[in-house]
Records
---
Amino acid sequence: GAGVSQTPSNKVTEKGKYVELRCDPISGHTALYWYRQSLGQGPEFLIYFQGTGAADDSGLPNDRFFAVRPEGSVSTLKIQRTERGDSAVYLCASSLDSSSNSPLHFGNGTRLTVT
Amino acid sequence: RKEVEQDPGPFNVPEGATVAFNCTYSNSASQSFFWYRQDCRKEPKLLMSVYSSGNEDGRFTAQLNRASQYISLLIRDSKLSDSATYLCVVNRDSSASKIIFGSGTRLSIRP
């Protein structure tokens, strides 16, 4: 079946602009995660949804970052007033449920470049 | 100190060699453990879960030492296709939300 889909695959924006990154999880997966990965680093946790609600947003770096999942499926990560330091690969992952042994399935990521 | 620490490598070994990576974690309440593999410019993919009793999947063996808070991955008879970054992953509580990744260990297998 289809995997996790992220769009766009690449996004170049100017400093100060607003961007939206989209994630379409595997059908039936209730848990959805956003991570950010910089070169040479592992994925850094941003936010986790169980269904429609953000169960844990402790990884969001500041209030410029916000994410929604209004119908419990597709999620959008929104970044306001982008800064050059926001440049990274933004990875979305979904898992069947929130049990600790449920593996994560990642999308291909969105490579964000802020100029 | 990072919550999950790995030797970044790179490990450069000949084809057919055995190679081992370690990973340490700081939170003793951590519940479950995994190794993920990430190819260059690709997304991470689950390689294997790590169970308390140790587990094996073909050429790959994973072990967990809760007392010392470390996890290991052993690759036997390494193949060129094993070249990748190996990410140590820890779920540090009973819900799935606190899934923390290490920075990864780079492995390069040479012919």
---
Amino acid sequence: EDQVTQSPEALRLQEGESSSLNCSYTVSGLRGLFWYRQDPGKGPEFLFTLYSAGEEKEKERLKATLTKKESFLHITAPKPEDSATYLCAVQAPFTGNQFYFGTGTSLTVIP
Amino acid sequence: KAGVTQTPRYLIKTRGQQVTLSCSPISGHRSVSWYQQTPGQGLQFLFEYFSETQRNKGNFPGRFSGRQFSNSRSEMNVSTLELGDSALYLCASSLDGYNQPQHFGDGTRLSIL
């Protein structure tokens, strides 16, 4: 059973066209939800941690929000350099606090 | 502050061989986790080490093993390599593994011929 599901799998945006990425999870007792950015040939780069429903975090053009069953990564007026794969992960206590990753959303921003 | 360092960056092996990958965590981080990343499966958790002890293990066969040294550096070993082991192997570290983000290295790309 998938613990974390990300949608869409791929997203193409025009530069300046805002959108949102979704991460839904089924684990209970969430310890934290983490967003990462991964560029080709690189390891994931940490972006945000969210711990409780209603929490929001912002960094430049990115804003992450959390509800009881999903998280959104909002991208406002994206630029080509925002092109990357965005991964979310959840940490839950019932399996020794391991991280479960979604398969990611591949974002392409066209100039 | 230096990030997570993984060596080597690239490896080419043949079926049946074994391989050892190395990971140096961020200074002060005591938890080290290993992941396998493939296009179809995404990041799959292999195991986590904390204070030289394996604290958590994913669903991988016993051919995959690891260890952690007293300075928190970690190694991962894969024996009797199979074609399906071709992947990007990522190491991540955090302070103690609880409620904190993991910070990743750039991985070792392992190709099996």
